[in-house]
Amino acid sequence: MDKEVAIKIGGEAGFGIKVSGLILGKTLFSAGFKVFGYSEYPSLIRGGHNTYQLNIAKNDVLSVTKKIDILVALNLETVELHKEELNSGAVIIFDGLKLDKSDFSGVNLVDLPLTDLAESAGGALTRNIVALGAVMNILGMDLQLFNQELEHEFGDKGAKVVTMDKKAAQLGYDYIKKFKIGAYLKKEDGSKAGDYIMTANEATAQGMIQAGCKLYVAYPMTPATSIMHILSAKQRAYDLVVHQTEDEISAIGTAIGAAAVGVRAATGTSGGGFALMVESLGLAAMTEIPLVIIESQRTAPATGLPTWTEQGDLQFMIRAAHGEFPRFIIAPGDAAEAFYMIQEAFNLAEKFQLPVIFLLDKLLSESDFMLGDIDPDKIKIKREGFINDDELEGMRDYKRYELTKNGISKRALPGQLAGVHVINSDEHDEYGYSTEASDMRTKMMDKRFKKLEQMMADMPEPQLYGQRNADLTIVAWGSVKGAVIDAMREVEDKRSVNFLHLTYIWPFPAKRVKKVLENAKNVLLVENNKTGQLGDLIRQETGFEIKNRFLKYDGRPFFREEIIKEIKKYI
């Protein structure tokens, strides 16, 4: 298959929209296709319009398209909202809706009695499965792998439920044959062992386990909440404690307390919750306690659009909390990067004894990515900076905040008798005792900032995708990666565009960014925010101003067609 196929399932909340889409996605993934899944839903307790879109291709697919080929409309609202997105020759599957054929020129209208077929299978709740069976027929696939996925998904509900679902799928598969719609796909070789479908939240949780995280503390906040749910289910298997606190202030305080006694600990939230954490962020910095904070962005300010995506928190992360102190900001661009980079986040936090902010967003947190060739041992887990009892006994004068050449002092932990020290939120001397002496204040500030040189040396540089001497250089960070790379693949002249993607954003890699941009013929900034926060940061740190800016801030991610259209303005 050379053609990419986009399938959207839409209906009211409670119809099992995402579960249905994920079953289909996993089936096609097992058949050897590459998939990307994207969900949209309103911030309502009940009801509202939900969709799940799958983009399927033979080659890698990392983003969502605006245009779709198959629309499964479980209610009339789905047709009304998405009919303009249909490609020529697209298919709409619906049940008894009164549609005016003149409004759908070039579109195949398939009136499928979903409810009747579902009831004949044994239950009206299976109408989604009836629709998916029909989709499998349209795609030119048999039901073997689909039935296997039904067994995997619903096997714990008993044989009766699985049998009913299989019957529902077969009824939908057989009924649609009368419409004689040509097959969209042909079966591929099957996915490789070791390939997975995961959201970035799932990948982050798996990476945290791999990194040896033993405490995750959080208060629920979309779109970060699922990290807590995923880790909760794995507590016994990995000797992990997941604790839901009464609020975000308690969450970060608990994580700091655990980290102070040597536990690898993390907390997670979204922008509003992080706003409550910032005073304690400064506490972690002053006391030089390693801490990982996961922040999954959504639209703001205030409550904003709680279930939609944006990249509006970058500058906030860099300057959050009063005063000045070094920190890392890491922003993965997909689920695979999330898996590896969260492990690095724990290593860096512990090595440099400071906060690391791990920056996701709703698109990353809740979209389904395909992960291939994941190496669980790629990142070496390093427990660094501790001082043992023998060293302490030999010292007789332990200084927790000793003024060292690189600013990093050896950590003793509570319980080490010769390592007793004060953990103090006030400015302090080398022992941790409060001081207001001007010279010691200067020395301690300089000590903390001496870490920056080594921090910069340990950070991977931004990756440049594509040919070096391109006509256009795109600059972006985080979740924009997938749409940009997919768009680049569809540009006729592959040499005409390259892409500088930033993941390790702070401390800012000024030398690398400045070199790439000064050698570029033309530069385009692409960001999911109103003001171009990365662009402003680049100007601040390098003096290079990016004049061409493509910004989007409607709560939706960049659709691939939008990036392609923008690229064509410059090449």
From TrEMBL:
Keyword list, A-Z: Oxidoreductase
Claim: Oxidoreductase is one of the keywords in the record: yes
Alphabetized GO MF terms: oxidoreductase activity, acting on the aldehyde or oxo group of donors
CDD domains given in the database record: TPP_PYR_PFOR_IOR-alpha_like
Keyword presence, Oxidoreductase: yes
Residues of the Pyruvate:ferredoxin oxidoreductase core domain: 470-541
GO biological process: one example: response to oxidative stress
Domain called Pyruvate flavodoxin/ferredoxin oxidoreductase pyrimidine binding: residue spans: 207-366
Domain Pyruvate/ketoisovalerate oxidoreductase catalytic residue range list: 14-174
Pfam families, per the entry: PFOR_II (PF17147), POR (PF01558), POR_N (PF01855)
Alphabetical list of SUPFAM superfamilies matching this protein: Pyruvate-ferredoxin oxidoreductase, PFOR, domain III (SSF53323), Thiamin diphosphate-binding fold (THDP-binding) (SSF52518), TK C-terminal domain-like (SSF52922)
Domain of life: Bacteria
Record-linked PANTHER family: 2-OXOGLUTARATE OXIDOREDUCTASE SUBUNIT KORA (PTHR32154:SF20), PYRUVATE-FLAVODOXIN OXIDOREDUCTASE-RELATED (PTHR32154)
Protein name from the UniProt record: 2-oxoacid:ferredoxin oxidoreductase subunit alpha
Organism: Candidatus Kuenenbacteria bacterium RIFCSPHIGHO2_02_FULL_39_13
